[in-house]
Design brief:
β10 and β11 form a beta hairpin. The relative contact order is 0.12. This protein is 38% helix and 16% strand. It is elongated. α1 crosses α11 and α10 packs antiparallel against α11. The protein has two domains: 181 residues, Creatinase/prolidase N-terminal domain (Creatine Amidinohydrolase, Chain A, domain 1, 3-Layer(aba) Sandwich); 230 residues, Creatinase/methionine aminopeptidase superfamily (Creatine Amidinohydrolase). It is an alpha+beta fold. The protein has 14 helices and 18 strands.
Length: 448
């Protein structure tokens, strides 16, 4: 019988762990007003002409915390519903437009920044207007825009899905003509073209991606903290594992830590796959009872201050790896460690692959097809903007080599999120064990 992932049993288990873990981390940090002003200025420096128009999300998802559109948040820091940002490079103006709320909306959702008499001062925007004034504002200023709007024509990314994945999901949704309506982002593009047919629309996403790929010092500070919180979460999950426990109990142990640490929650649906489920890449039912002899593969990370983290660890439910499990685990681990050794500014995927091949040959290990590489970017999105072909200082990404043997109910994946520094790289998630002896030592201490 498959259990619902939000069952009362799971909720109760989460409460138990939440009560047990306290005082581990300070309150979330946030960002300065100047951080967002610097980002806006840097984008306007690159765009140079026209006007940049960025839309925030207008509807909060049911049953979860509201999380603002990534690109809009990156330049505004604003998390009000229905917000729109207009940047004008020629005047260096940054204007925020927000819905004029009714008294009931204020009572239900709380007042937005438009209601704050000190909103401009606190936020650093040139002006804040009601969103009903947007089209008049644009019409009044068209002559300054040089016939050009810079908008996001590429798909958005979300907390979990990259731009390419958003496009892929839209394509799948549209397989049936009953589901092929325009996304809200594409509808906005159509409306701009209808209202301003004389204006050229250019895609601002490539410029945004280039900025987002290199993290700022304030972002790096948040990601370092997230790395510690997420690592401790996975460590507590390991300690909660034992034969007879359910996968969702392991998830609950991790969730309690990130919530206590000030995160909004998980950056993606937590993956806790035991036994045969360790071979399913994106398994997230987390409903199976863990059995003796299983490995448990957990893929997990927190969403802290709008920045994600990504960790995977695999460990033995009974506390000790079998010899076969050790053999596979060692190959995956050595490939991952060799990748990390090669990460530094200027490195290319070929540099990493060559180093991995050299290390595995020197150690006399068959990589079983694993070559190494960069992995995927991590930031506002778990699968963040592309890194490009050369590493730069300030880039953050996850490396996750893996081997799967479904016929043996054995999947091994080891993943860390790393930051490229001036001389090499820093493993942001290093505080959760991954050496075989470290894992077995930790597991031996369960219940003590």
């Amino acid at each position: 019988m498959t259990r619902n992932r939000f069952s009362p049993w799971r909720f109760a288990a989460c409460l138990v762990f939440l009560a047990a873990v306290s005082g581990l981390f300070a309150q979330r940090t946030g960002y300065s007003r100047e951080e967002f002003a610097r980002r806006r200025a840097a984008l306007m420096d690159q765009v140079k002409d026209g006007a940049v128009v960025l839309f925030g999300d207008a509807v909060a998802p049911a049953g979860s915390h509201f999380r603002q559109d990534n690109d809009f948040f990156y330049f505004s820091g604003n998390e009000d519903l229905g917000a729109i940002l207009v940047l004008v490079p020629s005047t260096r103006a940054a204007t925020l437009f927000l819905p004029q709320q009714t008294a009931r909306e204020e009572m239900v959702d709380g007042p937005n920044l438009l209601k704050d008499p000190e909103g401009k001062t606190k936020s650093g925007f040139t002006d804040i207007f009601a969103v009903g004034y947007l089209d008049e504002f644009l019409a009044r200023n068209l002559s300054r825009f040089g016939g050009r709007f810079h908008v996001r024509l590429s798909p958005r990314d979300s907390l979990d899905n990259a731009r390419s994945e958003t496009g892929l999901m839209d394509g799948r949704r549209s397989r049936s003509h009953y589901n092929d309506q325009l996304s809200v982002d594409n509808y906005r593009i159509v409306k701009l073209k209808e209202r301003y047919p004389q204006m050229e629309l250019r895609d601002v996403a490539p410029l945004i991606d280039a900025m987002r790929a290199v993290k700022t010092p304030e972002e790096i500070a948040v990601m370092r903290r997230n790395g510690k919180i997420s690592a401790e979460a996975v460590r507590q999950a390991m300690l909660a594992t034992r034969p007879g426990a359910f996968e969702y109990e392991v998830e609950a142990a991790a969730m309690s830590v990130v919530l206590k640490g000030g995160a909004k929650g998980a950056a993606y649906a937590p993956i806790v796959g035991s036994g045969p489920n360790s071979c399913i890449w994106h398994y997230d039912e987390n409903s199976r009872r863990v059995e003796a002899g299983d490995v448990v593969l957990m893929d997990f990370g927190a969403d802290l201050d709008h920045l994600a983290m990504d960790i995977t660890r695999t460990w033995p439910a009974s506390g000790r790896f079998t010899e076969e499990q050790k053999e596979v685990y060692r190959i995956v681990l050595e490939v991952q460690k060799a990748c990390i050794e090669a990460y530094k500014p200027g490195a290319t995927p070929k540099d990493v692959r060559d180093h991995v091949a050299s290390v595995m040959k020197a150690k006399g290990l068959d990589p079983r097809g694993l070559e190494g590489g960069f992995g995927h970017g991590v930031g506002l999105c778990v699968h963040d903007v592309p890194l490009g072909g050369v590493l730069k200082e300030g880039m953050v990404f996850a490396i996750e080599p893996a081997l799967y043997y479904p016929e043996k109910n054995l999947g091994i994946r080891i993943e860390d999120t790393v930051l490229i520094t001036r001389t090499g790289c820093e493993v942001l998630t290093k505080d959760v064990p991954k050496e075989i002896d470290e894992i077995e030592k930790l597991m031996a201490g369960r219940g003590k």
